Fold each of these.
Amino acid sequence: MATDMALVLENLLRFYVFDAKVMICVGAGGGQLAGYGWVARKVIAVDPDGAALATLAERIRAVGIEDKFVVVQKDFMVVTERADVVLFEFALHEMLLPDAALAHAGTLAPDVVIIDHAPGSPWAHVADEAEKVVASWEAVSARGVRRQEDYDAVQRFASYEELVQKIKGQGAEAIRRIEPWRGRTNITIPMAYRIAQL
């Protein structure tokens, strides 16, 4: 795995108590942090990407928590289910209108939690997402943050080819930005991230 997602999950579960709560997880496809399903009462996993949701389904089946999950392939902005908490899982920066997504989340649950890349993260720069990350955290700040914490992680890749596979969906600029690692192995790129509760 590119980064220690077990530690990221541990930090998320320490930051906010999901125990026995109904969650709406935005950007849940892929299932990197799906371990919150061990403590939640129910997880409504929302992602527009069917392939990512198929990966999530495999992961939750493999660890035996599929009975906790309802997998929903649709845009978050049309979700109407109610919950105790909406979690944006490294997804808010991908929203076209992060302020509107946060406002919508507030109509679905009393608590909104965001875990996403932090402004200034070297990984966000490499992935050509730095501007989107800044805009999403500005939208969070504008809504009134109850609490937030910053964390550091590292993206690790055994080879340049593995890094290309991770980054290729980000476009030509991201591919250009990883060029200095061409031909290298054991690549590490710092990834700062932040967790906030509204």
Note: The helical segments are 5-15, 50-62, 98-108, 122-126, 130-143, 160-167, 172-177.
Amino acid sequence: MSDAPSTLNADRLLPADPTTRSLARELLASVEHLPIVSPHGHVPATLIAADEAFANPADLLVTPDHYVTRLLHANGCDLSALGVGGTGAQPREVWREFCSAWRIFDGTASGYWLASELSSLFGIDEVPTRENADDLYERIAARLGDAHFRPRALMETFQIAILATTDDPLDELDAHVRLRDDATFAPRVVPTFRPDAYVDAHAVGFARNVERLIATAGEGREGYEGYLLALGNRRQHFLRAGAVATDHGVRTPLSLHLDPAAATRLFERVRRGECSAPDRDAFEAHMLYEMARMSAEDGLVMAVHPGSLRNYDPRAYARFGSDTGHDIPIAVEFTASLRPLLADFGTRPDFHLVLFTLDETTFSRELAPLAGFYPSVFLGSPWWFLDAPDAMLRFRSAVTETTGFSRYGGFVDDTRAFCSIPARHNVARRVEASFLARLVAEHRLSLERAREIIVELIDVAPRRAFKL
């Protein structure tokens, strides 16, 4: 952290009403300094294992943060000028573009996170502008050269106790093993099995990916049998490396149970490309069911992140590739879609299903009732477009009257921007304190019980849902 005192307001995001704010302060104080448990994110383990200095302010704070680059693009900045997709933009120019457009982040969650990072990490409280961009760049760059600002040191500084990454099934996970076996490194970095490229029949290169999977882990078996065996084997590889969960970035949460013969026929059609779009949808739905079956057997928690139309802009996709900030949320349906899966696995003792959504209309209509009945179902926190203070409060208000606080899966930061992790978790803690303070002020909850609940939400919930 910066040696300079931060000017961040201690009451930021807390209720405006003085009585409720006082209660929120007290509740926040009980969790503000608890270690961070991060059960889902996208910071690569190689960054932590290599422990190299961050290259420059732009690569640290701008280019990897899709919240930042997409809003800059919306306000007239070409993504190539921001270094998106490895376009080779000059870091100083990226930083100048960012500082020049600082005002566009007013009122956004990313603006709040960025202000928190600049103040708490670098002691920067002045408003970035084009005029002071170079000065800010130099001050941050000087800080990045400090040995205490390397990734491993920051893990300790940020009090990150557990950090989950998101990994390809064929990743050898060498970085995770090095971190796990390093007796001098206390935080726990765990891999997460993300099979989308091998189960989404719409994915670019799907057939090629499947062939590579079977060749690598199918033990000489062919076809659908080898395919399922390979997936199971790679799950075991992840378990041995410390994984606790699988993650599924599906377009919809549709599940479908096919008998082995029908599944084999569909697999072969999809593999050869001799299929319709509904066939591809059906295969993905069947594989979501199969992933649940495997989780019920091997104990890996199943996190489902549906509701995104990925790579929405064809020109941006052609120029910059996938995961470059132009995915757009769509409406989703959970109740009928998950019925085949939950009918067979919803009450299995060791099966945990954490459901996320980008469609907040499902909070009270579908997700809370499902989590309020099935012991396997946990409510994923608001994420990606919804991980903002007001949306998080809407989530808590929408689900609590049905589920109480016991069915929550804990906050996830879901970020590639490593230095934003503490700011994002701090927002979650302030939101929970604000919500609970209102219940206490309205005499719907005792202050003593609220103190217990906020610790459960911040620390116990993610450990319980993700078996940490």
Note: The first helix runs from residue 18 to 29.
